[in-house]
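Structure tokens please, single chain.
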Amino acid sequence: MADLTSSSPAIDYTAKDFSSFRQAMLDHAARVYPEWSGRNTADFGVLLVNLFAYMGDILSYYQDSAAREAFLETATQRSSVLAHAALLGYTPAAAAASTGSVTFVTDSTQPTDVVIPAGTQVTTAFIESLDAPLTFETDVAVTVPAQGGTATVSVTEGTTAGSQTLTLNAGTATEALVLVDSLGTSDGTASQSFTLPAAPALGDSVRVFVGSDVVVEWQGTNDLLTAAATDRVFTVNSSDTGIVTITFGDGTLGAIPDLAVPVYAAYRVGGGVRGNIDANQVVDIGIGIAGLYIASSSAMTGGREAESTESIRTNAPRRSVRRTAR
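Here you go.
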């Protein structure tokens, strides 16, 4: 039997970039086609070598990326880290909006009580770092007595997103109107994803509605792995910048929305530590209401950012260890 070890070239499996691929192919060509000695970049053979080296470099990058994203310790993409956390049963902390209260007062000449609807926007003065004022919304409706009367109402930082009104439970005693954004229509495929158009969106505020003639609200879940094939559920994933994507099931783990039916979402935009401000910083009513002004506001507290990727990387394994210990 012939000894192949002496004639077979050594292969460096760690050489995986353009230059290494190119040199390896040129070295191989020199052994197989010794009569081909041209190395001018205009040579068609060199052109082919460069093209294959370029393709190999790209494929090598994707191979390395796939290997890196396969492990929690080395993953760099937030989507990969979130997927690992889900497998470990860990739910990252979502961003939260700050809350507080605002006290309204009527003018002494205001002859009647003033009703302030829920969702009325109040704002701070212009904040240079945000290039805009900070907006809060009243949580409930409140009536302010006439002629200098006051009333205090709780407020939450952020705004209610939506460009159209959706009617729920039409024709029933529980009929209600909800402000929503249209996300598009279902294509009937498994694991469909839709991105909310406004950001930063508060993931735990997301409500999803599916249907045209009959609109049905689907329920959020932390893990589709626990869902049955008929469960109308979805998951919510938030990026580091607050862009939120909702994902439906695949027909085995969670239901698939029917083909061509509209998908809508109701949600809030805001959240984060930027909403934690000192007392008496809320000074204006978004849409002026005659005979009414803001007397004072409390400090706004409780705003936090979504859990960072590095924090998830650290905390998710600890959650898994605690579950195993039980």
